[in-house]
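Case study.
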Amino acid sequence: MEPGKFVSNIILIGFMSCGKSSVGRHLAKESGMNLFDLDSMIVDRAGISIPEIFETVGEKAFRDLESYVTSLISNHEASIFATGGGVVLRESNRDILKKSGMVIWLRTTAENVLKYTSKDNNRPLLEGNKSLEKIENMMAQREPIYQDCAHYSINAWENNLYQIAEKIWEYYEDFQNAGQEQLTS
Ligand code: S3P
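After joint prediction, the assembly is written out as follows.
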């Protein structure tokens, strides 16, 4: 790393089960960069699981905690952040994400979400009747928001972890160079 050069964060966004945490771990392993998982930061602070937070204090309190941990991203550089799928719902969070690093949207399909969450009981928003239609509706609402927030997007269902990481490192180089040009022009 060149001394004095600002090194951007890498921020992974996308729908539940699109692979943000796995891709984050892979990137951290390849690069030695620090990895922060916003959902884990919330759980650490609350001292209870995400389903317990939703059950005891409700979604609004969860979103407030999520906004708080999101605000901490701007204190970092050269780190990787895996976010929760709903972090983009608040405009204030989106503003922080966009200003705090290179935002990558990992795109997935409703079929894959259903497949990968079928045995999962850690996602309160998908509890109850977990149907393809319900997931498709949620995705349709959120996709324009992910799109608006992201600098780049990657199809995460047709690429393996290595291919996704390779694309991210290519984008990262362009992003870093563009940032340096903006700083020096
Ligand atoms: C949520 C996604 C979850 C978690 C919470 C709410 C959402 O994270 O933050 O259950 O609103 O999409 P993952 O995307 O890691 O599942």
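Observations recorded in class. The chain is about 55% helix and 15% strand. The beta strands are 9-13, 34-37, 79-82, 101-107, 152-155. We will return to this complex in the next lecture.
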